[in-house]
Amino acid sequence: MTREERRLRLFVDDQIENRYLEVPFELPAGGTPALEVTLAYNQDAAVIDLGCRDPERWRGWSGGARSRFVIAPDAATPGYEPGELVAGQWAVVLGLHAMPAEPVDVTVTVSTGVDAGEVEDEPPAPPPPSGIAPGRTRLGRDLPAPDGLTWYAGDLHAHTTHSDGTLSIAQLTAAAAGRGLDFLAVTDHNTVSHHPHLPAVGAAYDLCLLPGQEVTTHAGHANAFGDIGWVDFRRPAAQWLSDVEERGGLLSVNHPVQDDCGWLYPVRTGYLELWHISWFLDLTATGPWAYLRALAGAAGAPGATERPVFLGGSDFHTPDQGYPPGTPTTWVAAEDRTPEAILDAVRHGRTAISRFPGPGEPVLVRVGEDLVAIDADGTVLVDSTGLAGDRTAEESTRSGGTGRRRRIRGDRVTLVAPPEHGPYRLEAPDRTLLAISV
């Protein structure tokens, strides 16, 4: 075994100069059976993310979740891609996320050879649930849909051990199936190492698993949906959008008003994670609606789009959060529950969002010119937040500028509600958010 140790002293000036610092090392010709990298520093003084590239491609990212990884030809630490250890210049990539004013000692150790290290074993997979009939929803909710389509329940934002989640892909999939979901997007941070595993795990648990990547930076996060390969988070956000669209995928802006990871880029996409798990801290919050008004006000700005397609995501990381997958639930009206059909439904804007997936939970779905409120007796329907721009000044004044309100009476109520007056939302009488639709 060979072992190379690099000692660095890094502080905030290094972050200012280069947020993604490369520590290069060479692998010799003739191959090596395994590569192990460890990172050591005072984690009370700084936050440093960990990743790796080889001479030809990106090999993986674990962010701040790991301080060690192993890559071998036939196996790798989750978050990293196994494969040939090609000769040439590799690099450990350090993401300088939070750095102190005074230098902190950082040690990067690269070991190669048969004794370089072992890949961690995955935890045992839970037993698969009983299957459901093809084309049927797992929840069995009879939601009205346009001809030839079915409303499927899912979650478009979740993480596994391939980034900073605590569950394996199989464990996460079992949890989603147990909630009655029909589909789940696995969107690990800055890596696609999980993509090859999704078809087999999805088949085992009879759940549609969508390949995704959460493109993650200090200035905002975005989900790249589709089996489209890795998206380089170190490049400008406009390049992410261009790359994703050219490859046939979808790019959504994630949690645009969340704490320290809100969306700071001037780039707009056609898809928006409007309802994120962080909103559950206060379901009467108006920040997301204010953000939509800002989007409408910037309609003529570079990169602006028409009103985006609304998505929801739990951003599931661990059961310790207290919020299981499907909190909130994104509903899509699709031809079937394959990854291609689910993404096609999203692409065409056939989405709705509810607080939870289960029977009895209020849902608001669109069927043509109509909105149908299900299990929503006693709730309040609120119309446009001002995006449509077609209301008179008098109407806006009467509603306080926040949309007209009407009471829902009955467990299945159909209302004529033109899409241009949306988005619409269902609230409890105390203004707690329950559901969203266009």
Strand order, biggest sheet? 15-14-13-12-11-10-9-16-17-24-23-20-21
Return the average pLDDT rounded to an integer: 92
Under CATH at level 1, the class of the largest domain stands as Alpha Beta
How would you sum up the global shape? elongated
Count up the domains: 3
From the 3D structure, determine the CATH topology of the largest domain: TIM Barrel
- Estimate what percentage of residues fall within beta strands: 25-35%
CATH architecture of the largest domain: Alpha-Beta Barrel
Count every helix, treating DSSP H or I runs of 4 or more residues as helices. Answer: 7
Helix/strand-derived class? alpha+beta
* Helical coverage, percent range: 10-25%
CATH evolutionary superfamily of the largest domain: Metal-dependent hydrolases
Instruction: Give unreliable regions as ranges.
Output: 300-304, 386-401
C-alpha Rg, in Å? 23 Å
Main sheet? 13 strands, mixed
Distance between the termini: 60 Å
Counting DSSP E segments of at least 2 residues, the number of strands comes to: 24
Your description of this structure?
- The protein folds into three domains: 2-112, Jelly Rolls (Sandwich), CATH 2.60.120.380; 129-359, Metal-dependent hydrolases (TIM Barrel); 362-438, no CATH class.
- 13% of the residues lie in helices and 32% in strands.
- It has helices at 12-17, 169-178, 198-204, 237-246, 287-297, 339-347, 393-398; strands at residues 2-10, 20-27, 35-41, 47-53, 58-63, 68-71, 88-98, 104-112, 150-155, 183-186, 208-217, 220-225, 250-253, 271-276, 309-313, 329-334, 351-354, 363-367, 370-374, 380-382, 405-407, 412-416, 424-427, 433-437.
- The longest helix has 11 residues, at 287-297.
- It is elongated, with a radius of gyration of 23 Å.
- The termini are far apart.
